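User: Quick sanity check before I run a bigger batch. Here is a single chain. Can you write out its predicted 3D structure?
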Amino acid sequence: MRRMPRPICSLLVLFTATIPAVSEAKPLRVFILAGQSNMEGHAKVETFDYIGDDPSTAPLLKQMRGADGKPTVCEGVWISYLTGSRAENGEGHGKLTAGYGSRRNPKEDGGKIGPEFTFGLTMDAAFDEPVLIIKTAWGGKSLHTDFRSPSAGPYVFNETQLANFRRQGRDIDAVSVTKENETGCYYRLMLEHVRHVLSDIKRVCPAYDEQQGFEISGFVWLQGWNDLVDSGVYPNRHKPGGYDAYSTVMAHLIRDVRRDLNAPRMPFVIGVLGVGGAKPNEQTIEFRKAMDAPASLPEFKGNVLAVETAPFWSEELAAIANKHDKVRQMSTYLNSKHKDHANADGKMTDQQKREYVKDFEAKLISPEEAATWKRGASNAGYHYLGCAKTFALMGCAFADATLTMLKDQGRR
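Assistant: Done. Predicted structure follows.
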């Protein structure tokens, strides 16, 4: 079942207004967020102001900042965040605020947000009981290998891959052993961390009441780029059904994580890759269909929702990004002889090249566009341009979908 986003900026007010005050204690609400670099989150806090430029999202910015102008610190939400490299993973934890996005040092504020910030803000408004977010995310990870769960079985190389290995003179047995060791590694790390946190919740969430216990109330998955671009694993990715293998492994992940966490009714949200916005290429269209597909399986009706993130892509910033790409292309052209550009004879000096590119950029990108870019973007397109507005809207949408499933299940 696909969950299309609705206007998000009113969600916090909506949930606060519709949930009656309850005095009795309730179990701690636990939510798990997992995926790759976009779940990490590459939106710098410096791009928050861009959220306020849009009247429809300005109210959301007020939720994200305190009266002192600093990012809100959630009084009722705690987070444990595992990230880093395979050899040097680390945990950051504390009350939820901005800074739990991508981190160079897992234990230190990275100055960025992912979807966790507004997801937590929404949950803080929705529940009287404490909330705990357990986030595990690493950049550059695939579902086909890194997060592959047990019931999906071992990764099997297709004939195209095997033929390429032979042509390259590679040792297929050695390659197979390496793949076997990599398969499911990050699924296991994710589970290990969740279990570690749940074994001593007070370490992360001092408000936890052991007598009331806890409830795993939702799981959010945001991943996809490494699978999208892998032509070896998906040799027919430009054709209908070219990413069917992703759908199959995604369904196994949902089943396995519920089984392994003993949470058979746990609401599961699939964040459908939205890079490229409303007009993606054919390959991305096919991949989005594959991400969406598991939510339509009969066994997942009402307990798995696919949330489209393309509506939150900033078309305004993307248009400016395209112009920046043209500037970079021009710089590349000038570093070699090119008949269609100013350095056709290859005699331009480095200073002349710099001046030419600077002038080209000034003519292509207006001062207003340059200011907008600086205000709203902080990373590359595959990271949703590092736009805090985009990640904030995603977080609210993921929370909305989770709360909808909980309500349908009679659990809120």
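Confidence is low (pLDDT under 50) at residues 1-23.

User: Great, the batch can go ahead then.
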